[in-house]
């Protein structure tokens, strides 16, 4: 087992899609770092929480080995390495603790445009290029499909054109890369997003308290990201109509205002478009105000 430590280490991607959002999320949790010269290790200033900047592929292993306590990584990467470990009989060594609401993508099967897709049975005997061999092998096995998994570390989408595979299994967000390579998505293996990953067992030293505090702060940032505080005034007899227009909001908080009117406020969890505000106004809401929510302690 790893030795006791009194500082927490979090691994994030050094550069790439998750690097910037991961860093801003941790900053929003109140962390700051003294920039180190080589920039692989950032020493925590506001709290004893250091950052390790690495390739995303290394993050699950760093947690498994106890080198890092938390990591921010795509669920795709975490699941792939978890599935690979299980395939060779290793125990689970990390887990996804929280979804972080960024880095959304899907792991999908994509076939050449001209294929007439009828279902997974069509995959029998085919070669599938992927960077996610363990997830794909498990998925095929669950469906009893006997196909050949061709592992490639990059440029998976050109494999069908090069003739090294018949189809691919790759990450898709907009679908533009697939379309540019005359491929179409047909099956989803995994819905992915960036996650906070941690060990299966919390260390029993000074880090435990830090980990709990960080999780609570993270929830206080992530859970309110899509929420807005809505404030307005209305006459008492309009309140029930207005509440009906806000099915995605918490119960209205009602406070007395001058002239027998009420001041109302609520946390709304759906989009508050101009159109919705105008509709609320027509139903009797006055002085509507929408405020973004930065953090909360539940
Ligand atoms: P590294 O150098 O750290 O190994 P990488 O090339 O493996 O970087 P990126 O391309 O930066 O990784 O992607 C990191 C993660 O971003 C992916 O593992 C995935 O979770 C997420 N992601 C979101 N959308 C996409 C997409 N369209 N294609 C690939 N990854 C995506
Ligand atoms: Mg990588």
Characterize the structure shown:
The relative contact order is 0.14. The model has no long low-confidence stretch (mean pLDDT 96). This protein is an alpha+beta fold. Strands 2-3-4-1-5-12-6 form a 7-stranded mixed β-sheet, with helices on both faces. It has a 5-stranded mixed β-sheet with strand order 9-8-10-7-11. A 4-stranded antiparallel β-sheet has the order 14-15-13-16, covered by helices on one side. Strand 3 and strand 4 form a beta hairpin. Helix content is 27%, strand content 31%. Adenosine-5'-triphosphate is lined by residues 13, 16-18, 55-57, 74, 76-77, 103, 105, 171, 173, 192.
List keywords for this structure.
298 residues; alpha+beta; seven-stranded mixed β-sheet; five-stranded mixed β-sheet; 9 helices; 16 strands; globular; binds adenosine-5'-triphosphate; binds magnesium ion
What's the arrangement of secondary structure elements?
Elements: E1 8-13, H1 19-28, E2 33-34, E3 41-44, E4 49-54, H2 59-64, E5 70-74, H3 75-87, E6 94-99, E7 105-112, E8 127-130, H4 133-142, E9 148-151, H5 159-162, E10 167-172, H6 176-180, E11 183-192, E12 194-199, H7 207-222, E13 228-234, H8 239-244, E14 253-256, E15 262-268, H9 274-282, E16 286-292
Parallel strand pairs: 1-4, 1-5, 8-9, 8-10
Antiparallel strand pairs: 2-3, 3-4, 5-12, 6-12, 7-10, 7-11, 13-15, 13-16, 14-15
Helix pairs in contact: 3-4
This protein binds adenosine-5'-triphosphate and magnesium ion (MG).
Short account of what is shown:
With 298 residues, the chain is α+β, with helices and mostly antiparallel strands. It is built from 9 helices and 16 strands.
């Amino acid at each position: 087992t790893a030795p006791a430590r009194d500082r927490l280490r979090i691994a994030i991607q050094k550069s790439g899609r998750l690097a910037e959002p991961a860093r801003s999320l941790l900053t929003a949790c109140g962390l700051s770092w003294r920039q180190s010269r080589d920039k692989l290790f950032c020493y925590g200033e506001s709290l004893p929480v250091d950052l390790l900047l690495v390739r995303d592929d290394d993050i699950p292993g760093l947690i498994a080995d106890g080198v890092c306590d938390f990591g921010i990584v795509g669920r795709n990467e975490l699941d792939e390495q978890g599935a690979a470990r299980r395939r060779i009989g290793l125990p689970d060594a990390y887990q996804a603790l929280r979804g972080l609401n960024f880095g959304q993508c899907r792991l999908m099967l994509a076939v050449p445009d001209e294929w007439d897709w009828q279902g997974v049975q069509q995959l029998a005997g085919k070669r599938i290029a992927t960077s996610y061999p363990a997830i794909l092998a498990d998925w095929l096995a669950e469906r009893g499909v006997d196909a050949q998994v061709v592992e490639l570390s990059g440029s998976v989408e050109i494999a069908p054109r090069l003739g090294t595979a018949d189809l691919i299994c790759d990450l898709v967000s907009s679908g533009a890369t697939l379309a540019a390579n005359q491929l179409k998505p047909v099956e989803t293996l995994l819905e992915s997003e960036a996650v906070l990953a941690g060990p299966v067992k919390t260390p029993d030293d000074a880090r435990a308290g830090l980990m709990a505090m960080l999780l609570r702060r993270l929830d206080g940032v992530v859970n309110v990201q899509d929420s807005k505080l809505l404030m307005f005034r209305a006459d008492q007899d309009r309140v029930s109509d207005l509440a009906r227009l806000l099915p995605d909001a918490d119960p209205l908080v009602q406070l007395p205002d001058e002239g027998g009117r009420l001041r109302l406020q609520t946390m709304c969890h759906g989009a508050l478009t101009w159109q919705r505000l105008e509709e609320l106004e027509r139903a009797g809401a006055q002085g509507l105000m929408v405020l973004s929510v930065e953090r909360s302690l539940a």
